[in-house]
Amino acid sequence: MIVYGVAGTILLVAGFGIFNILTMMIYEKMKEIAILKATGFSASDVRVIFLTQALVIGAAGAVMGLVFGFLISYAVSKVPFNSDVMIMLDHLPVSFKPVYYITGFTFGILTTALSGYLPSRKAAKMNPLSILKG
Q1: Facing residues of 80 across strands?
Q2: Using CA atoms, how far apart are residues 64 and 134, in angstroms rounded to an integer?
Q3: Which of 5, 15, 38, 43 could covalently link to 115 via disulfide, CB atoms 3.0 to 4.6 Å apart?
Q4: Residues 50, 19: Cα–Cα separation, whole Å
Q5: Positive or negative, the Cα torsion across 109, 114, 115, 117?
Q6: Confidence band (pLDDT; 50, 70, 90) for 85?
């Protein structure tokens, strides 16, 4: 139960981080968004652009997290462990089931998609005339 709470907290913090990154990206690229919309891009086109950026960030982060987690888990599984309990363990038990990696990647992508939706919607609703006027 504690592990799920920690994992949920980490995903929530990651979601806020991605949300902040995308929100700041929108403020930095306001003129580019206005030019895109003024040249004929629809609101859904702008939304797709920002959601794609969010999903690329999320996929890269999820893959790097899975690789780093695997390497740390593998290192921990090789550490010698001496136990005085009835069951003799020579190494710490670590599970490398693929379902855990698939679940981690899926939750990483879902967190990214949810945290990228609001900034992409905000970028899609911008009025190009008010941005270009200053």
Answers
A1: 91
A2: 40
A3: 15
A4: 11
A5: positive
A6: low
